[in-house]
Design brief:
220 residues, eight-stranded mixed beta sheet, globular, disordered N terminus
Length: 220
């Protein structure tokens, strides 16, 4: 341990600060990652469910072609390869994260989605890890679901992922969000449910992550 600390001190003295910061950033990222192929993936239980169960289901079904993924970060960059045979869009309000998005990327908030797309455009919208982490107020949450409803086609699927823990849940979104009630629960066959609570055995971090599956009702 003493040797490691000495090496770190030497590195800080020898290398420029920007280089040291990049190395430290990579090591921090690596510490919470798993290696899959040639990419780093976030090593949390919800990502296993998303990447190993939900995304493969969407990929194998031809009716799900136009897909929007809301929110980008370093761990979503590999999704470009997953969806390479789909019309894959990403949306992220932070311009600095554009590099993690798809070639079809929009820098803006989900609250403004209909500014870019016609009604009934998408087959699937994946709205994961944004509620409670940027979209927090009731008003914004209601608007976000209204935008999803408007831009999904009839029969289109909404995958809503959120953390059921006090610090990341501004209010009881599933029960209290009015615009969400426009959707019908969608039975997600790989998990045999319309709502899936991700098992989390971590001792350090309790994410309480939940996936809810919805469908925009078919037109009469």
């Amino acid at each position: 341990m003493v040797l490691i600390l000495q090496v770190k001190k030497i590195i800080k003295k020898i290398l420029p600060k920007p280089v040291v910061d990049r190395i430290q950033g990579f090591l921090a990222k690596f510490s919470i990652s798993r290696i899959r192929g040639f990419s780093l993936h976030l090593n949390t239980p919800d990502r296993y469910v998303l990447e190993d169960i939900i995304i493969p289901y969407l990929l194998e079904r031809n009716e799900f072609y136009k897909i929007l993924f809301v929110g980008c970060d370093w761990f979503t960059k590999p999704y470009n390869n997953y969806f390479k045979n789909k019309e894959y869009w990403t949306l992220e309000i932070d311009e600095s994260r554009k590099k993690y998005g798809s070639q079809r990327h929009i820098v803006d908030s989900l609250l403004n989605l209909s500014n870019y797309f016609t009604n009934d455009y998408f087959d699937v919208i994946i709205y994961n890890g944004v509620f409670g982490w940027g979209i927090n107020s009731r008003e914004d949450t209601e608007t976000s679901f209204q935008q999803c409803f408007q831009c999904l086609r009839s029969g289109g699927i909404l995958v809503f992922g959120w953390n059921d823990i006090p610090e990341a849940k501004p209010f009881a979104v599933i029960k209290e969000c009015q615009t969400l009630q426009q959707f019908k629960p969608y039975f997600f066959s790989p998990l045999s449910t319309v709502q899936y609570s991700v098992p989390d055995k971590s001792d350090k971090h309790k994410f309480g992550h939940v996936f809810n599956f919805y469908m925009k009702p078919l037109s009469d």
